[in-house]
Design goal:
Layout: E1 12-13, E2 16-17, H1 18-27, E3 45-46, E4 53-54, E5 63-67, H2 68-73, H3 79-84, E6 119-123, E7 126-127, E8 152-158, H4 163-166, E9 173-179, E10 185-195, E11 202-213, E12 216-227, E13 230-231, E14 249-256, E15 261-262, H5 268-271, H6 275-278, E16 281-285, E17 288-293, E18 302-304, E19 306-319, E20 324-339, E21 345-347, E22 356-358, E23 363-370, H7 373-376, E24 384-400, E25 407-426, H8 429-435, E26 448-449, H9 453-457, H10 462-468, E27 469-494, E28 497-515, E29 534-552, E30 555-568, E31 571-587, E32 590-601, H11 605-609, E33 613-616, H12 623-629, E34 646-649, E35 658-672, E36 675-687, E37 690-692, H13 695-706, H14 715-723, E38 724-726, E39 738-743, E40 745-747, E41 750-766, E42 770-787, E43 795-796, E44 808-817, E45 821-830, E46 845-856, E47 860-867, E48 895-904
Parallel strand pairs: 6-9, 22-26, 34-39
Antiparallel strand pairs: 1-2, 3-4, 5-8, 6-7, 8-9, 10-11, 10-48, 11-12, 12-19, 13-18, 14-15, 14-17, 14-23, 16-17, 19-20, 20-24, 21-23, 22-23, 24-25, 25-27, 27-28, 28-29, 29-30, 30-31, 31-32, 32-35, 33-34, 35-36, 36-41, 37-40, 38-39, 41-42, 42-43, 42-44, 44-45, 45-46, 46-47, 47-48
Length: 906
C-alpha cells in the first residue's frame, strides 16, 4: 500500500549487491531491467501504479525513482528542487522564489506541462491536505516545501495517468514520497551554505534514528532549517531598473489631469537625495518634472524567500503476532516564510476616480508617492509573513492471512494545513494625512480637497510611517481524511502463473476555509477591496480492483478499474476509470511494454466555492496601451506596473469533472545488470479542462483583438474583449486604462500533449580505481495543443510565444566511488523558451552541480556541494526589469554547502 517501489533484499550478484544495482537503476528513473539468475531470484516488490506485489521492478508504465542519496549528491536543495529538476517536469511553475505570486510560501510541480493540479502527490501512498491558498488564486495543489528529507527513503514518480489506481488528480502522473520504515541508532547531519554573490545563507540540522523494543519498533526524525532571503539589490545585473536604458521609476509626482503634464515639485527631489540608496534623481521629461529612482523596485523585491522551518516525524510498529502488525505515523511541520514584492505606495483617491479637484490650484490633480526604505525603517518593514503548520496522521493494521498468499491493510489517515498570513498595509488614514479633509464633490462627482503640498513633498520618518501603516491577518486552512481497506493475493492458478488480484475500498472527505481579516471590510485599510470568507467541502467514496494476468511465460497483462463518487455543492459526480497494460519479453534482456488508461479530475474546490472576490495583481502589463503608445515592451511605461490591474474573480458550482485519456509504449534493453537503456512514448489528452483564464494571456489576446492581429469577431476575441473593462478613450484621467479584468473558471474544450522519454545507465568498475556510473535522462515534448472553446482553432503551445514550458530537458551525471571518496558531476540542459518580449527564443542553457564527500571511520562523512559551478545566470533584458526569465531560471548564481554526517550506534 504505502510504497510504489518495494524494498529489495541484500543479495550478491557478480561482485555487486542487488541493492547497489537497484540504487543505480532508481537514480536513472528505474527503467532498467536487471538480469536475474535462477539461483538468485529477485524478491517481490510493489511498483508505482500497482497494488500487486511482483517479481520485477518494471511494469507497463515507466517509473522514476529519486533516492535519498540523490537528494544530496546531485545538489538538490529540497524535495521540490529534486522533482522540478526531473526531465518530465517540463511545466512552468511559480515557486517559493517567484516573488509576485499568490503562493510564494509554497512549491508545486507540473509534470508534462499540464499544471500543478494535474499531478497527484502522496506521502507514503496516502493523500495529504492541499495548501490552503490556491495557486494563482485559482487551483488547489499539494505544497512540496513542507516535506523534510531527513527520513525520505525515495521519491517515486509514475509517468502516466493512474486514476484507476489512485482516483482523482492522477492525470499527468503520481508523485509518492516514501519515508523510511525502519532505522537503527541515531544519524546526525549538519549542513551550512551560502551564495557567492551575497545573501541566501542557510543552515540545516537533521537528527533521525530508530530502535526496537521487543515487539515494538520506533523511528523518528527532526529537521530544523534556516534560510536568509536574497534581495534583488544583492545582484548587480538587476540592482537598477535603468541598466538597459529604461527610464527610472517615478517615486514622487504631481500631475495636472486636465493637460496631462507633471506639476513642478521645486527642490523636493534634492530634499530626498539620500533616499533609495542615494539613487533618487529629478527627471525632466517632455511632460514635466518628477522625482524617480532606478532602485525603487529592486529595493523591495526578494528573489528568494526567507524561511525558518521545523519538521518532525515519528512512527511506531507493534507486532501483535507473526502475521499482524499495528502501525502509526505522525508528521508535523512548522514554517515561517517572509518575502517582499513591492514597497508601500500611495495614490490620491485610489479607491475613487484616481484623481481629485485641488481647490487651491483650481485643477484636477493626481498625487503619487512611493515610500523609500529610509522613510519606513528599512525594506523589511514591509515584508509579508506566512506562519504555516501542517500535520499528517496515519494509523492502522496490516498483515497476512494464514495459510494463503493474501495480505491486507486497514488504515485511517488525516491531514491538515493551516497558513496564517500577516500582510503589511497602509491605513485609510493616509488619505487624510496627505490630502486633508474631504470638502465635498464637484458636479462630476470628483472629490474636492485643499491639500498641503509641502507635507506631500516632505520625506517622512519611520515613526510617522508607523502611524500610517498596519497589517492585516488572515487564516487559511485545508484538511482531508480517508478510511481505506485493501487486500491482495493470488486468486487462481493459470498455466503461465497465478492470477493475482488487488482490491481497495476508500471513504474520505476534504475541505478548506479562507478567512480574511474582518478589518478589510471595515474600511480600516487604504484602497482595499472587500474580502469574503470562502469555504467548502466534499465527500467521496471509491471501489477499485486490479488484476495481474500472466497470458504466457513471456507475456503479462494488467487490468484495473475504479469507481469514484463525489458529493459537493448540493450535487453528485461519479467516474469509472480503467487502465490496461501489456509486458512482452521476447528475450530475458528485452522488455516491450504498452499501456492505456482513462483518468479524471474532480473540479478544484476553490473553483467551485470561491466567492466573488475583488483584488489586484501584484504586477501586470497593459499590452494594448503599449501598442497604442508605440513603445517597445522593455521600455513601455505600462509594462510590469506594480501594483497591477484590478480583477474580479468568481467560482462556479456548475463545473464538470475533467476527463483524461493516456497511452504509451516503450522498450527497455538490459543485457547486464550494469547497463540498460529505455525509450518510452507517452500521450495524454484532457477533455473539459477546468481552468481560470490567465490574466496575462487575456490582456495579450485583448490587445491583439483590438489592434487587428486577431479577428475581433472570433469566439476567443469576443471573450477576451468582454473580460477587460477599460476607461473610455476620451476619459479625463487615464484614457484606455484597465479598470478591471473579469476572471472565472470554465470547462475548456481540450488539451493534449505527447513526447518521448529516453534514459540510459552504465556502471563499471576498474581495479584500483573504484567504480564509475554514467547516467542520462532526456524528455522531448513532441506536441502540445490547447483549445479554449470548441469553435476555436487549436493553439500549438510548442510554437506559442506565450508558453514558458520547457520543450525539452536533459539530465546527465558522472559519478565515481572509491574506497573512502565519492564525487558526482550533474549537468542539466534546458531547452529553448520565449524571451521576455516574446520576440524570439532564448538559446538552450546548461547548468552544472558538483559534490564530493569523504568517509572517515565506519560512521562519519564530510562533504561539499556546489550548485551552478560556473556561476552562470541567464540574462534577458528584452522584457524589462528584472532582466532575467523570472520563474524559469534562478538568478542566485553559485551556491555552496559544507555537510557533516555521523551515525551513532550499530
Amino acid at each position: 500500500m504505502g510504497g510504489l517501489q518495494g524494498e529489495k533484499a541484500l543479495k550478491k550478484n557478480s561482485g555487486y549487491s542487488l541493492t547497489a544495482v537497484a540504487l543505480a537503476i532508481a537514480t536513472l528513473s528505474q527503467h532498467a531491467q536487471a538480469a536475474d539468475t535462477d539461483d538468485n531470484p529477485t524478491e517481490k516488490v510493489v511498483i508505482t501504479g500497482s497494488r500487486i506485489a511482483r517479481a520485477s521492478q518494471e511494469g507497463p508504465t515507466s517509473v522514476t525513482v529519486i533516492t535519498a542519496e540523490d537528494l544530496e549528491k546531485k545538489g538538490y536543495k529540497n524535495v521540490f528542487d529534486a522533482l522540478n529538476s526531473q526531465t518530465q517536469s517540463t511545466g512552468f511553475v511559480q515557486g517559493a522564489d517567484y516573488g509576485n505570486t499568490f503562493t510564494p510560501a509554497a512549491n508545486a510541480v507540473s509534470l508534462r506541462g499540464l499544471g500543478a493540479n494535474h499531478t497527484l502527490v502522496l506521502l507514503n501512498g496516502r493523500r495529504v491536505a492541499d495548501y490552503p491558498i490556491a495557486y494563482e488564486g485559482s487551483i488547489n495543489f499539494v505544497d512540496l516545501a513542507n516535506i523534510p528529507s531527513a527520513l525520505i527513503d525515495r521519491i517515486e514518480i509514475l509517468n502516466g495517468g493512474a486514476s484507476a489506481i489512485y482516483g482523482s488528480d492522477a492525470i499527468a502522473g503520481v508523485v509518492n514520497v516514501i519515508l523510511k520504515k525502519q532505522a537503527s541508532g541515531v544519524d546526525v547531519d549538519l549542513k551550512v551554505g551560502t551564495t557567492q554573490r551575497g545573501g541566501g545563507s542557510n543552515a540545516r540540522v537533521q537528527i533521525s534514528g530508530g530502535a526496537e523494543f521487543g515487539k515494538l519498533s520506533a523511528i523518528f526524525a527532526a529537521e530544523i532549517s534556516r534560510r536568509d532571503a536574497i534581495w534583488s539589490k544583492d545582484r548587480d545585473f538587476m540592482a537598477d531598473t535603468t541598466l538597459h536604458g529604461a527610464a527610472p521609476t517615478s517615486v514622487l509626482s504631481r500631475k495636472n489631469v486636465d493637460n496631462g503634464r507633471y506639476i513642478d515639485l521645486g527642490d523636493s527631489c534634492q530634499r530626498m537625495a539620500g533616499h533609495f540608496g542615494n539613487s533618487l534623481v529629478r527627471v525632466n521629461g517632455s511632460k514635466g518634472a518628477y522625482c524617480a529612482s532606478g532602485q525603487a523596485s529592486p529595493s523591495f523585491w526578494t528573489t528568494q524567500t526567507e524561511n525558518h522551518s521545523e519538521n518532525l516525524f515519528g512512527g511506531l510498529n507493534y507486532a501483535v503476532n507473526e502475521r499482524t502488525n499495528l502501525f502509526g505515523e505522525l508528521a508535523l511541520g512548522f514554517n515561517t516564510t517572509r518575502n517582499n514584492t513591492r514597497g508601500p505606495s500611495w495614490t490620491s483617491e485610489a479607491a475613487g476616480n484616481g484623481y481629485f479637484f485641488n481647490r487651491d490650484s483650481g485643477r484636477n490633480e493626481v498625487w503619487s508617492k512611493r515610500f523609500s526604505p529610509e522613510e519606513i525603517g528599512g525594506a523589511t518593514r514591509f515584508n509579508r509573513q506566512w506562519d504555516d503548520s501542517a500535520a499528517s496522521l496515519a494509523v492502522g493494521v496490516r498483515g497476512d492471512i494464514a495459510a494463503s498468499s493474501w495480505n491486507y491493510e486497514a488504515s485511517y489517515s488525516a491531514s491538515s494545513y493551516v497558513s496564517k498570513d500577516n500582510r503589511p498595509r497602509l491605513l485609510k488614514a493616509i488619505d487624510s494625512y496627505f490630502l486633508g479633509p474631504k470638502l465635498g464633490e464637484d458636479a462630476d462627482g470628483v472629490a474636492i480637497y485643499a491639500p498641503d503640498a509641502a507635507r506631500f513633498t516632505q520625506p517622512i520618518t519611520p515613526a510617522q510611517f508607523d502611524q500610517l501603516a498596519g497589517a492585516s491577518r488572515s487564516k487559511d486552512k485545508a484538511w482531508t481524511q480517508t478510511l481505506s481497506i485493501s487486500g491482495s493475493g493470488e486468486l487462481l492458478a493459470l498455466p503461465a502463473g497465478p492470477l493475482k488480484l488487488a482490491a481497495v475500498a476508500e471513504l474520505g472527505s476534504q475541505g478548506f476555509r479562507n478567512q480574511p481579516d474582518e478589518r478589510i471590510n471595515q474600511g480600516v485599510y487604504y484602497n482595499s477591496a472587500n474580502a469574503q470568507i470562502t469555504s467548502g467541502s466534499r465527500s467521496r467514496y471509491a471501489l477499485g480492483a486490479e488484476f495481474n494476468l500472466p497470458l504466457h511465460q513471456q507475456l503479462n497483462a494488467t487490468l484495473a478499474g475504479r469507481y469514484d463518487h463525489y458529493s459537493f455543492a448540493g450535487r453528485k459526480d461519479s467516474k469509472l476509470t480503467y487502465n490496461a497494460g501489456l509486458e512482452y519479453r521476447p528475450a530475458k534482456s528485452l522488455l516491450l511494454r504498452g499501456n492505456y488508461a482513462t483518468s479524471f479530475r474532480a473540479p478544484d474546490m476553490n473553483y467551485i466555492y470561491a466567492a466573488k472576490t475583488r483584488g489586484y495583481y501584484a504586477s501586470s502589463t497593459d499590452y494594448y496601451r503599449c501598442k497604442l503608445s508605440g513603445q517597445p515592451l522593455a521600455d513601455c511605461e505600462f509594462a510590469n506596473q506594480s501594483p497591477g490591474a484590478n480583477y474580479i474573480q468568481t467560482g462556479s458550482k456548475e463545473l464538470r469533472s475533467e476527463n483524461g485519456k493516456s497511452y504509451g509504449y516503450g522498450v527497455v534493453w538490459s543485457p547486464a545488470s550494469s547497463f540498460d537503456i529505455s525509450a518510452d512514448y507517452w500521450n495524454i489528452r484532457i477533455k473539459d479542462l477546468v481552468t481560470n483564464l490567465d490574466a496575462d494571456t487575456i490582456l495579450r489576446d485583448e490587445a491583439d483583438c483590438r489592434t487587428g492581429v486577431q479577428d475581433a469577431g472570433s469566439v476567443l476575441c469576443l471573450d477576451a474583449l468582454a473580460r477587460v473593462h477599460r476607461n473610455p478613450a476620451n476619459a479625463v484621467f487615464e484614457p484606455n486604462a484597465i479598470r478591471e479584468v473579469m476572471v472565472n473558471p470554465i470547462n475548456a474544450a481540450n488539451e493534449r500533449t505527447s513526447g518521448v522519454d529516453l534514459t540510459g545507465k552504465w556502471r563499471w568498475k576498474k581495479a584500483g580505481w573504484g567504480s564509475f556510473l554514467v547516467q542520462a535522462s532526456y524528455t522531448r515534448v513532441l506536441s502540445h495543443h490547447y483549445r479554449q472553446f470548441s469553435k476555436d482553432p487549436e493553439t500549438d503551445q510548442l510554437k506559442s510565444m506565450q508558453n514558458s514550458n520547457w520543450p525539452s530537458k536533459l539530465n546527465g551525471s558522472l559519478g565515481w566511488t572509491g574506497e573512502s571518496w565519492r564525487t558526482t558531476l550533474q549537468l542539466d540542459r534546458y531547452g529553448r523558451i520565449p524571451n521576455g518580449d516574446q520576440s524570439g527564443r532564448l538559446s538552450p542553457y546548461v547548468l552544472a552541480n558538483w559534490s564530493a564527500s569523504y568517509q572517515f571511520g565506519k560512521n562519519g562523512s564530510v562533504g561539499v556541494i556546489v550548485n551552478n559551478v560556473l556561476d552562470k545566470v541567464r540574462l534577458d533584458p528584452s522584457g524589462g526589469w528584472p532582466f532575467y526569465p523570472v520563474g524559469s531560471y534562478s538568478p542566485h548564481g553559485r551556491q555552496a554547502w559544507l555537510q557533516l554526517s555521523y551515525h551513532f550506534g550499530s
